[in-house]
Design a protein that fits this description.
Oligomer: single chain
Number of helices: 3
Radius of gyration: 21 Å
Distance between the termini: 61 Å
Order of helices and strands: HEEEEEEEEEEEHEEEHEEEEE
Largest sheet: 10 strands, mixed
Helix content: 10-25%
Length: 260
């Protein structure tokens, strides 16, 4: 009887081996493909080496970066996990993310780190939220707010010397920057919404080249900004992931690859 069970178990293992090898091969091929295109892996899948954030909110679990807010750790201000590997200028970033329904997060780039607030960034953000009201839009954290809603192609107007002396708040209305022009449509926001998976893994691609910033979700262009402003616009800066003030939530990131 025992010999028979062991024989069956052995057969099952042998039967599964080709599948395991194939899946491992796909993963390796996928990673090698990115590396051949000049991408570098900036998250090792095991530790937060090269990253810095508040350990109350950030950890590695099951090979993923996890940002989590619990009932006991509610935030008073947004907090970031910051990549310490440099200040990317022109770059392409690819990754996968998954977020709970009540979640609010985002990927900040070309950002500056605030000196008086721990783990706080100011700058461009590829917005991500669990309800997918904002996912894919371009939002400037602690700055000009919304620079392009999902489905918009915009140009941010250059500021004159006189305008540059004015306050940023004077040009913000309903949490959006007013000194811009919508020059095209990438599709209706609700139609683009159908391309985003709820509470499941989504792929993200962020392309920053010169003053043009493009956000893709699952291969679909969601927002496209050309920032002609030299006063508030940035050509390089910090990269980081956000956990946002609000109810308990969980966001996960994996397969983070950067090409500069």
């Amino acid at each position: 009887m025992y010999k028979k069970i062991n024989s069956i178990q052995g057969s099952l293992i042998l039967g599964l081996l080709p599948i395991i090898i194939i899946l491992a091969g796909y993963k390796m091929a996928d990673s090698n493909e990115y590396k051949q295109k000049g991408f570098v892996q900036i998250f090792d899948g095991k530790t937060l080496a090269g990253w810095e954030g508040d350990p109350v909110y950030w950890r590695v679990e099951n090979g993923n970066i996890v940002g989590e807010i619990t009932p006991a750790t509610l935030l008073k201000r947004n907090s970031f996990l910051i990549w310490r590997g440099g200040m990317p200028a022109d770059f392409e970033l690819t990754l996968e993310f998954k977020i709970t329904k009540a979640g609010n997060s985002g990927i900040n780039y070309r950002s500056e780190e605030l000196k008086d607030i721990p783990y706080a960034l100011k700058g461009y953000q590829l917005d991500i939220d669990g309800a997918n009201r904002y996912t894919g839009q371009n939002y400037e954290e602690r700055g000009r707010t919304t620079l392009a809603y999902r489905g918009q192609k915009t140009i941010i107007k250059a500021q004159s010397a006189d305008n540059a002396n004015g306050t940023v708040q004077s040009k913000i209305k309903n949490n959006a920057w007013t000194d811009l022009t919508v020059i095209g449509s990438l599709g209706e926001s609700d139609a683009l919404l159908q391309q985003i998976k709820s509470e499941d893994w989504n792929t993200c691609r962020l392309v920053a080249k010169g003053n043009r910033l493009k956000h893709y979700i699952n291969g679909v262009l969601m927002s496209d900004v050309t920032d002609n402003e030299s006063v508030n616009g940035k050509s390089k800066g910090m990269l980081g992931m956000q956990v946002h003030v609000g109810p308990p939530m969980k966001v996960e990131y994996r397969k983070i690859m950067l090409k500069q």
